[in-house]
Amino acid sequence: MARALCQRGASCVTNLIEIKGVTHAYQTPQGPLPVLDNLELAVPEGEFAAVVGPSGCGKSTLTRLVAGLMRPDQGEVWLHGSLVKSPRKTVGMAFQNPVLLEWRTILQNVILPLEIVAPQMPRRARIARAMELLDLVGLVGFEHKRPSELSGGMRQRASLCRAIVHKPDVLIMDEPFGALDAFTREDLWQTMRDLRRQEPFTCVLITHDLRESVFLGDQVIVLSGRPARTQYVLDVDLPADRTIESIYTPEASAMLAILREQIQIAQGRPTAQRAAS
Amino acid sequence: MNPRLQRIVVPLASILGFLLFWEALVWVNNWPKYKMAAPSDLPAAFWRYRVLFFEMGWQTLWRTVAGLGIAVIVGTLFGMIMGFSRIARDALYPLLVGFNAIPKATLVPVIALMFIGQHDFNTVLLAFLISFFPIAVSVGIGLSTLEPEYRDILRSLGASKITIFRKIALPKTLPEFFGALKVAVTLAFIGTNLVEIVSPHGRGLGALFKSGETNGDYPLMFAVLIALAFLGIVLYYAVVALERIFAGWAERAAS
């Protein structure tokens, strides 16, 4: 399970994101509700980690921890070799709900993080940067539209542009494609793959779609049911240059079968093999 | 029909239809003027007291707008406090609801005794007291129901609370704010006129109404009511115009 972090004698592979023994519980009127239990996670720089697990297992809590929006009861979250104590400008976030600001145009929405992170940046440069990304996701021609005039898939594309416009080290996505129809979702997977070629970011993707995790991920982390532990880590052994067809190959099918079995274990249900024996 | 033209013609036609219905009602029942004046009696009343209508109408208007302006400032402040703090919300809601439940007519003599002779001040104060509640409540609800993701987008970048308020919470609350302001406009008029009618100072359209009553000039009383309705409509559409400018994005295209 543990990944070799240092090759013997060679240079260390730096883990951009490291979560060490994180335990967290929410205080509810019914008493503490443990959501994370001694969670371990390591994502090397430039890699794409897909996190899957049963619903309600604490995946969203994980995103808030990495973003520095909250601090764990126990354990540590490290980004770029420094302990995360509060939000930092080098993080981008995208959610299932695109949360675009209705009173701004698509272009103004994408520029928003630059207004916070780089207030000195000239307006012209901001627009150029935003247009570069809108071009990558195929939204040129829609930059002056309001979010309400766009389809769900287009809004999510704009939301992705906003998440990376300030060139964050880390992109955190919480089921960003969950509310989209199957075809739009596959389109966006490919958009995401193309963005990664252009933009150097380390990514944590929370998802409940196993095919999505295999198509996009360099590693897939399976979390157990609540409270979540790291139950299984799968290294996705597919070429970097994946197409949608790649997830219908025998290799991908074998990985999906493993993940499906792990999810069933996480849900506390007997797997097919166990039930047969 | 041309949609722009339609937006002007349809409301005018409905007002005309209403006046015709009123006229017919009086005519069919053969009501005398002291029971109900007909619209055809009103132009004469307006013409006869035209100077007073302008003078008193202006007094009513500026005091209403002043009261409303204070209501916007104080209401928004209360709304912000209640929107951002759960404790403040729990503490303030019962007080505000209780205060709002008091019939404001009962406050007129109280205020008149507290600030004897301060007629302008009393009137503005009541217009404010009667109209700030809807603004406070809707700004509070608008802020407290802001989806956490909106906040997280900026908070994850290390934005300050003030920046988050300015860039997200404030604009997002504007549609609710203007909705409340439309209610507050008409309420503020009620507040102004309560003081003008109940406390005898002889200023404003309320006083003109009172003098019509005293002199048995019934068409004048109805003319005052129409003048008040007219001012209310003017102020309402002024708010609508502001809403178009500042929160026009919330309006969906007609489908």
Describe this structure in words.
The complex is a heterodimer of chains A (277) and B (255). Chain A has 277 residues and is α/β, with parallel strands linked by helices. Chain A folds into two domains: 13-90 and 170-192 and 200-269, 3-Layer(aba) Sandwich (Rossmann fold), CATH 3.40.50.300; 97-167, no CATH class. Helices cover 34% and strands 24% of the residues of chain A. Chain A has helices at 59-66, 106-117, 123-136, 152-164, 182-198, 210-216, 250-266, 272-276; strands at residues 15-28, 31-44, 48-52, 74-79, 82-83, 91-95, 170-174, 202-206, 219-223, 230-235. In chain A, the strands form two sheets. Chain A has a six-stranded mixed beta sheet, sandwiched between helices. A four-stranded antiparallel beta sheet of chain A has the order 2-1-4-5, with helices on one face. In chain A, strand 1 (15-28) and strand 2 form a beta hairpin. In chain A, helix 2 packs across helix 3 (123-136) and helix 2 runs parallel beside helix 4. The longest helix of chain A is centred in the last third of the chain and has 17 residues, at 182-198. Residues 1-11 of chain A have low confidence and may be disordered. Chain B is mostly helical and 255 residues long. Chain B has one domain: MetI-like (MetI-like fold, Orthogonal Bundle), CATH 1.10.3720. Chain B has ten helices and no strands. Chain B has helices at residues 3-29, 42-48, 50-84, 86-101, 107-114, 119-144, 148-155, 161-198, 204-214, 218-247. The radius of gyration of chain B is 22 Å and the shape is globular. The two termini of chain B are 16 Å apart. The model of chain B has no long low-confidence stretch (mean pLDDT 89). The chains are: A alpha/beta (277), B mainly alpha (255). Chain A binds chain B through residues 64, 67-69, 86-89, 91-93, 95, 97, 99, 101-103, 112-113, 115-117, 146, 148, 162, 166, 172, and chain B through 147, 149-150, 152-159, 163, 167-168, 171-172, 174, 247, 249-250, 252.
